[in-house]
Amino acid sequence: MSILALLLTACDHDGVDFFVKDTTVPGVVNLGDLEPIPMADVQNNSWVFNGLEGLLFGQLGQPDTYAEVGGATFQFKGTGGKVCLIMDPEMVYWNQGIELDNNEFLYEDRLTDDGDLDMFAGLSAYYTGSPGVDIGTFELPYTDPLGEEHFIDFQECNRDYYPSGRATYETCELDTVNRAGISFTVLLQTFMLPIDDGVLNFGVAVMDGPCEPDGAAFRKSECTIQMEDGMGEDVGNAGLEEAFCAGEINAYCEAHLGEPNAPCSEGYIPAR
Amino acid sequence: MLTILIASLLGGCGYNEEIRETEIKGKLVVPKAAATRNVKATTDPLDLSTVPLQDPRLLGPIYIGAYAAIDENSRPYPIPFQGPVIDGEEGDTFPYGGTGVGRFDFACYKFLACKVTTGRFADYADMMDYFTNVLQNPIKDNQGEILNSEVEFEQQCLDYYYEVASDNMAFIGPSDFKEEGDNYVAEFELFHTTFVPGMAVWGFMDAPQISADKLDLNGTFSTCSASGGRTVYKYDQTYDEGGAYTDILNRPTQYIDADDWVSSGTIVGDDPSTEITLNLDIPIISEQ
Amino acid sequence: MKILRWQLPRFLAVLAGFLMFGGSAQAAATGIIKGVVLDDGGVEIPGAVVTLTSPALIGGAQQRSADDEGRFIFSDLPPGGYDLSAAKEGFSTVTKRGVPVGIGRTVEVTMELKYGGADVLVVSERPVVDTESANTGQTFNQDFLSRIPAGRSYQEVVGSTPGVVDNGSGNPNSMGASYNENSIVMDGVNITDPVTGTFSLNFNFDALDEVQVTTTGFDPEYNALGAIIQLSTESGGNTLKVSTAGYYSNGNWSPQYDAVYAADGTQLSPTGFDRQFQAAEVALEVSGPIVKDRVWFYGSYNYNRSLFTGAGVRNPRDFDGHYFYSKITAQPTSAHRVSVVFGANPTTIDNINQSRYVLPDAEERQAQGGFFTNVKWNFFPSNRITTEAIASIQKSYIDVSGVPCTHDEKLGYNPCGERQAENFIDFETPGRVGVGGAYSARNSGTYYIDDRWNATFKVKANFLQLDLLGKHDIKVGAENNSTWWTNVQGYSGNSMYIDTYLVPYDPDSLASGYWYETTGPYVYSASGAHWVAFAADSYKPIENLTIFGGLRLDSTDIRNDVGASILKETVFGPRISISWDPFADQKTKFFGGYGRFTDIGRLGITRYLGESGLGYKILLGEPYGGGNTSNFSNVYTRFDGRDAYDLGGNLLAPREDAFVLGAQREVVPDTAVGVNFTAKFTRGVYAFDETNLIYDEDGYQYIGQKNGQLEALYRLRTPLVSRRDYYQTDVQLVRNFAERWLAQLTYSYVVSKGTVQDSLGYGLSNPSQIDVMYGNLDTDVRHQVKLAAAWDIPNDPWTTRIGVSGQFFSGSPLSRYYYAPGGAVYDLAGDGYGMLREPLGTYGRNEPIYDLAVQFTQDLPVKKGKLQAYGQVENITNATLPYGVYDAYISYENRYVVYGRQYPINGTLGLKYEF
């Protein structure tokens, strides 16, 4: 009878299939202290390679329970001037669309392996989480004259440019004037983990200078931080990003069409 | 009635929901001086002389809020106590609740977006009279022609709102106010307000703009957003009906300007069921 | 929460032959025969031997000796016909044949023996009036189901009870209650869905012995704000029986049309289109003895398939269901009975969306089903004491996903990619939808995997005919019930693209859309623990007066995904009723009663107060603009998904107080007329209010926010102002099946008012609307008529049976909602949902609805076994009225819009063979 029951419930899916949980990668991570990178190094691109101080790569997984918030935090000290934060979550942000309308590229975004992080920053004194343990916010209570508490958000990232969407980089400019040497906390809150392996790779950097320097060659874009997916062993990711940033994506995709783990989705052909 | 009796006998005894929200009823007292404005003496565009005119239709929407305290010091007039300033904006007053006496409603013509307060006009003719004679900015229909027929006005509204009678038009009807001596008096109720003993109720009136030299702006209000309200797609026209800004009670000082009136405030005691009286007694002479 | 919207064709329900008011101190799904043995002078005969036999009775004949007062009692009898005979030496033996027993029914029989007379065989009286019970409702017996045009499902059968309004979902509104406030019990086991409060399984119709619907029941063993629906199933018998049947229905021949209009009144669909409506059913039953009189078995299999298309839709909804049911009943000794049940109902429903705006590739499949199993042990230590213990487990699942792909081009939808296997379901490609459905879609874009478990352990004891200043039938019992729910939901590819149209439903007016990005699949779980204790006493101080008192104690604890208690309460449910037979002839009764019923919570409520949720970002415009720039900077809103709502103060379990008053009289044999009045007051229905937004004086616009953020913070409450008041007056004529015909006619006058028809309302979220939220509810259908009649034409052995059933509902209420520009009840972005200007349900009335069906069966004599042909026509007048009481509304533009009408005339042919 139990076999019959099993047969009878064959159409019943087990929802657990939808969750990929790599228990080796923690959901809440503290990256420690980052040193702001001098803008000169940024502008001559000498800092784009892994290993340079101030540029950090990290990984995030699923928090312990599904109800918990996950993310990464790090701290840096105010420089006394403007500081630009840039963060790039896994893989390449494509500009592709599901419908093929007037897009420069005709390759579908790799939806299954893109995740999303949202960046928040503020004074470390205002951060309510425990780095590495618990994700918090920058909301602190203000008590009014009758003793009622209202929460005020002391988060300082400019709302114009965040929180962006999947696989998109985010930048945030903080003004640390009169706050040199004061500790700031940056929170990269997990919005979505990639479907393919449940692990989100990302790269983050703090730059000593404004995000829009006058007349600078600094290219604030997807390609500012590269190889953020370098932590993974997935064949083709590093090459894909390199080709994308070099403007050679069509050739790259065409060269790899039909491969078992093809970096560009099947069924599409290069437009030009 | 029987059902309420039975229900209270059987279902209700001993159930205390323990929620903090309550309804606070009150009486708003507005001096007639608040309904007195200097309006153009004649319709001659070259004649900029003005005469004082008292007309209850000049009372704009009045916003009332419940706040932690009244701040007498930050400004020349009393305002609700503000929280800390973040990012250069005004601080938030974090109101406990609020309501209004009169609100913006769309009176069927694009011209009237952000110009019509409910509870001020008895009928269409009354509204046409106000705009033509008091504001000297007559109502224009959607084609730009001056509207001079109240029958046409009513028909436009019945078509626009898909009604068969004007009973349901919110912008015309009995006035909110009753005359009592030198004042106009209206009832108000703060719905679903967090009750904290000792809280203050405060309000202000947004007076319509009246200027002798900018006639086409006459009748607009600082608390009404021209891009608020519903966006209308009707026939080949697209426009917004206009509606109140959503943070009027949170940052009232951003909306108070010359000719508005402000309340000195009332403190609510320990019993929320006591009816309070709110006096709108302080005029704003000039923008400060 | 997703409602299981069951759009089965609107078969009409079946009416029982005799009106059953069950529920004195009695075991579930069984009845009692009791009585007295007298001589012809009216003197009791103690020690007379009373014998009971029936093909429905396992364990063989039962015998009792009449006590000192000549009284006897047989309890725990499955529904059916019984033969009773009384004998005493020196007296005639009297046999009464065909004593009817039904669920919860007590039948009183007087056996008159003549001293020295000849043996007598009589056909039993069939008392129409149950003089011991004050319950209201109806019982539907299998014999009569075969005569009156039937829905071949218990869900539709229920709709014919007076005061029950069928809304087409399979979960009816009983006496003004919500569709999800009924309690469904099968053989004493509660099979109501623990999450949604609706029915949780489909069932083999032929395995049903009897269906009893109690709209107001005073037995504390059961509890519901709506109806208590009891199903009694077959157990087999001493003879081997095999039955096979096949049915085919078709509604395709009549001209099809629809009445779907746009909001401005333009007709969206062409008149006259091909609309599929076909159904087929195959039924197989096998039952019989394993050991004669000791062990019986019953097995049933149903295969149900139907193809049905909505208006303007190309691909039919394909319903494919298998229902299994099996039972073994054993009575090894006269003191013990054991039964084991196992059932399952795996089903797939493809193209369930049935919206003309959803392209075939974006259609959805719903796989549902599950299994249930229980063990029941009855122990009868003496004639006067019966006990029962039940252990049961039920699992049900609902999985919704995109339709599986196919390589078969003929089917015309959702083709598989080259590398995809047949029937592959795509959980990764995002969907793209437009207003009202999907115009340009590759995938349905969402999935929903839901599992529900329900484990119950129940014990009960009956002490019958205790003597204490009269006779007492006492029942006590306890029940423990645990429920679990796990739900996984997500969007394919964690995204969804939404097209918007300036003119609704017009793809040519495409405006920039928006892109929905979600945090990923999430899992929600909840659990519930529920203890019940009940006690009841049916007290007869004198022979013709029954005073019934009962008390029920419910202790409930419903927890959300992090284990926090959402509803934790202990409630009492007192019940009291009186039934008086003034002439002591079992033909008349006056009755009245009061009962308190409670909604002990369903797991779906915790969903609003859970910590796990789906966060999302709405990004405006085309997500990918070409070139190398990011368009993801314009995030319109970001929602974290956690802690979506809050608890507002103390929650109490919604409760209902019901009052019943009535009278019934058997005027000629087998026929009774009756009138009764019911009033029900429900208080504390779940409702949301909102605590942050501050509105202007009329509630049209926001002018402030308490916490400084423009967000709506909803809170779950059970305030007393959230309520329903219901009044019903019934006039009823009932004729049991006798002398070849039966009839039933009920007229009900109903007033149904309240603030919320559903079990959860939003009426409090805009404070200025609270006054107008109390008005006529959807179930305020003032005049309701239900009719059934059947006749067995006397042309045996080629017996023809004709049955007719009909219903009439006067118009249900209509409300008119007005646009609220700045934000009204549900909407934060402006252009919101509507405001009421007059009290709910007072703007107008819908058209009245009626429905008439006719059925005939024809016996065909064959050498061995029985062969029967079956034909039925539904909606014989081809009435085209708005379906149910819900499918029409007044639009913002003050137009009366009908978006669903009755299914047109359709016919069914069937053949049944049994041996």
CATH class term of chain A: Mainly Beta
Radius of gyration of chain A: 21 Å
Chain-averaged pLDDT of chain B: 89
Taken from the alpha-carbon principal axes, the silhouette of chain A is: flat
Radius of gyration of chain B (Å): 21 Å
Give the structural class of chain A.
alpha+beta
Number of helices of chain A: 4
Describe the main β-sheet of chain B briefly. 6 strands, antiparallel
Low-pLDDT stretches of chain B are 1-9
What is the fold's blueprint, element by element?
The complex is a heterotrimer of chains A (272), B (288) and C (915).
Chain A: H1 2-8, E1 28-33, E2 37-38, H2 39-43, E3 55-60, E4 71-77, E5 82-89, E6 116-123, E7 139-143, E8 149-153, E9 170-175, E10 183-192, E11 200-208, H3 237-245, H4 249-256
Chain B: H1 2-12, E1 21-31, E2 36-40, E3 50-54, E4 62-67, E5 70-71, E6 79-80, E7 97-101, H2 124-134, H3 150-161, E8 178-180, E9 183-194, E10 200-205, E11 224-225, E12 231-234, E13 237-240, E14 243-244, E15 261-262, E16 266-267, E17 276-279, E18 282-283
Parallel strand pairs in B: 1-17
Antiparallel strand pairs in B: 1-9, 2-3, 4-7, 4-10, 5-6, 8-9, 10-15, 10-16, 11-14, 12-13, 15-18
Chain C: E1 31-39, E2 49-53, E3 62-65, E4 71-77, E5 80-87, E6 94-101, E7 106-113, E8 120-123, E9 136-141, H1 142-145, H2 154-157, E10 164-165, E11 173-174, E12 183-186, E13 189-190, E14 208-216, E15 228-233, E16 241-250, E17 277-291, E18 295-308, E19 317-333, E20 336-344, E21 347-350, E22 364-382, E23 385-402, E24 431-433, E25 446-467, E26 471-491, E27 495-501, E28 510-518, E29 522-540, E30 545-559, E31 565-580, E32 588-598, E33 616-620, E34 635-639, E35 646-647, E36 655-668, E37 671-683, E38 686-690, E39 693-695, E40 702-705, E41 714-717, E42 723-738, E43 741-754, E44 760-761, E45 775-776, E46 783-793, E47 800-809, E48 813-814, E49 817-818, E50 835-836, E51 844-845, E52 849-860, E53 866-874, E54 888-890, E55 896-898, E56 906-914
Parallel strand pairs in C: 1-7, 6-8, 12-15, 24-27, 35-41, 38-44
Antiparallel strand pairs in C: 1-4, 2-3, 2-5, 5-6, 9-14, 10-11, 12-13, 14-15, 16-17, 16-56, 17-18, 18-19, 19-20, 19-21, 20-22, 21-22, 22-23, 23-25, 25-26, 26-29, 27-28, 28-33, 29-30, 30-31, 31-32, 32-36, 33-34, 36-37, 37-42, 38-41, 39-40, 42-43, 43-45, 43-46, 46-47, 47-52, 48-51, 49-50, 52-53, 53-56, ...
